[in-house]
Design goal:
Blueprint lengths: L2 E5 L3 E2 L5 E8 L8 E6 L6 E6 L6 E3 L7 E6 L4 E6 L8 E8 L10 E4 L3 E5 L2
Parallel strand pairs: 2-11
Antiparallel strand pairs: 1-3, 3-8, 4-5, 4-9, 5-6, 7-8, 9-10, 9-11
């Protein structure tokens, strides 16, 4: 069955960096766009980044554009989220998701999500 396992969440200082990883299994990885969303306590989930099946096309929400970079390694079935210039408002649980399609599309196309990894940004 489809499995998505996130890792890399940690406590970081404002201005610092973290790299999240997501190991995927149970489906043909290159046939699916992959995305990251996050949810802070008391807030709705925010879809923040996505990458197409070939890795050439990406999407970023305005809140992370210029600071976060999504990438994928189709040989390893991995997707990454490099987070730089972290802010306290980036504190959230981060989730990796797969799309039903190879193109990025919108959040509604993402049918499976992992359990998440916690990122806390605080001095």
């Amino acid at each position: 069955q489809v499995q998505l396992v996130e890792s890399g969440g940690d406590l970081a200082q404002p201005g610092g960096s973290l790299r999240l990883s997501c190991q995927a299994s149970g489906f043909t990885f290159s046939n699916s766009a992959m995305g990251w969303s996050r949810q802070a306590p008391g807030m709705t989930r925010e879809f923040i980044a996505a990458v197409g099946g070939t890795g050439r096309r990406t999407y970023y929400a305005d809140s992370v554009k210029g600071r976060f970079t999504i990438s994928r390694d189709n040989a390893k079935n991995m997707v990454y989220l490099q987070m730089d210039h972290l802010k306290s408002e980036d504190t959230a649980r981060y989730y990796c998701g797969k799309s039903l399609y190879q193109f990025i599309g919108n959040e509604g196309n993402y049918d499976t999500w992992g359990q998440g990894t916690q990122v806390t940004v605080s001095s």
